[in-house]
Amino acid sequence: QLQLVESGGGLVQAGGSLRLSCVASRLTFSNYVVGWFRQAPGKEREFVARVNWNTLSTYYADSVKGRFTITRDNAKNTVYLQMNSLKAEDTAVYYCAAGLGATQYAAAYPYWGQGTQVTVAS
Questions:
Q1: Is 89 strand, coil or helix?
Q2: Using CA atoms, how far apart are residues 121 and 76, in angstroms rounded to an integer?
Q3: Who's near 89: CB < 8 A, 6+ residues apart?
Q4: Among residues 80, 59, 73, which one has the least CA distance to residue 9?
């Protein structure tokens, strides 16, 4: 069973940058779509970005387009989320997830990491 571990969260000033990592273990990301989601206090989990491991196609939520970039490293079996020009409203717990469908719907992803906190101070 695929296991995912996120890292890279932290506290950053508005306008700053962070890079999140998601490492897969037990199985590889091959053939999976890997997505990043986030959940702020009192809000529903929302889609941020996804990458198709095989085709490299990417898709972003409008709220992060142009600021966030999702990439992958085959050799390290890792997906990254580079977050630039961070805003206070980006504050949330960020989760990576893996599934077989290219979708922004969280229910379609059966595998999830434990999450990493990102806090953007304004």
A1: helix
A2: 31
A3: 40, 63, 120
A4: 80
93-120 residue pLDDT tens: 999 999 998 899 999 999 999 999 999 9
The pLDDT score that the predictor gives to residue 98 is 95
**Amino acid making up residue 104:** Q
Phi and psi torsions of 106, nearest 5°:
-60, -35
For residue 57, CA distances in Å to 43, 60, 116 come to 28, 11, 24
pLDDT digits over 35-73, tens only?
A: 999 999 999 999 999 999 887 899 999 999 999 999 998
Q: How many distinct helices (H) and strands (E) make up the chain?
A: 0, 11
Q: What DSSP character marks residue 104?
A: S
Please give the biggest Cα pair distance in the chain: 40
Instruction: Measure the CA–CA gap between 56 and 5, rounded to whole angstroms.
Output: 21
